[in-house]
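I can't quite decide. Please look over this sequence plus structure tokens:

:::
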Amino acid sequence: SPLNSLFQAMESEVSAAFDSGEPEDILSRAFKLTVTREDICTLQPLGWLNDRIMNFYMGLLVERSKKEGYPAVYAFNTFFYSKLSSTSHKGVKKWTKGVDIFKHDVILVPIHLRTHWTLLVIDLREKTIKYFDSLGQKGDHVCKTVLKYLEEESREKRNIELTASEWTLHSMGTEEIPQQNNGNDCGVFVCKFADFISRDKPIVFTQEHMPYFRRRMVWEIIHQQLL
């Protein structure tokens, strides 16, 4: 069937991305990012996703959100939170030069905690800040740090005081979101949390979907297009 041959073509493309050529070959370029074969190979089974893959995928989500019917999404890059937590608003205020983050519906903040990826999601429509960790750790301090950032950003950029008491901060529990059962898939979990949230869809995947998601992400990054 046409669908079968399409899947076979995709499969052979993904295998070729992993297996042929040099590590420094450039396989995709967008969002001021260059993705090499070496980067793509972090999507192999049990590979550890790097910043380039994470940021490229966030770029794809933001692109998609410009289409009709999707919430307006803004994504910070993976270096934002570590910079914010080590310097405060002052250290990152130039990161949003020319951007009013408050004109968006959803803001994604992928977070790199030394050896683990997590995701913080700001929903400006609901005034919620939620923390998603596929290993079930709490991120209440992360939520508070980001709320403080939002207060300062709002004051400085729009001259509007946010009322902190109107906001709900919540670390998602292990019974609320799928959990990983290995030490490698946290980056894929973060990308897929962000994918489902940026479509306003309930998060229904599990650990079992990870090998498929990894291969699918290879294709999406190479083609700069979400399936």
